[in-house]
Amino acid sequence: MRLIKPDNEHEIVPLRRALEIAEQYNKDLVEIAPNASPPVCKIIDFGKFMFEKKKKEKEAKKKQHTVQVKELRFSPQTDSHDMEFKTRHAREFLENGDKVKAFVQFRGRNILYTEQGEKLLLSMAEELKDVGKIESKPNMEGRRMIMVLAPTKG
Known about the structure:
This protein is α/β, with parallel strands linked by helices. The chain has helices spanning about 15-25, 45-65, 80-95, 115-125, and strands spanning about 1-5, 10, 30-35, 40-45, 70-75, 100-105, 130-140, 145-150. The protein folds into 2 domains: about 1-60, Roll (Ubiquitin-like (UB roll)), CATH 3.10.20.80; about 70-150, Translation initiation factor 3 (IF-3), C-terminal domain (Translation Initiation Factor IF3). The strands form 2 sheets. Strands 2-1-4-3 form a 4-stranded mixed β-sheet. The longest helix is centred in the middle third of the chain and has 18 residues, at about 45-65. The radius of gyration is 29 Å and the shape is rod-shaped.
């Protein structure tokens, strides 16, 4: 196996010799690349190695942005002012990198106005086309018509 010593010196040695060298340094023998030919091992303090690894993972996790799905609810007779207000909220959500799930809730006899609900959702998507794109077109699920908008990259 290829052995990397604490002073970054490389040499090819058998396993038993590598273990003896690690014991001389009072450190652990850690296999870094098992699939390499020959396998690569390094003499390091394993506890410190794991601590550094977890620290790097934690830093990487801090920097990533999780995409949330924000919901907006409408009715088939939503007024134009309410529509503008909710569209403004949807714009903010999309600019922040979140997805928007807009749905029209049909109650009672409102189920007769499905085409009105679809027009409502498509007009909202048209107003938001500069910051978002339609991920799933308006479709009925029970008494709801649902459309999902995703933010455009850039």
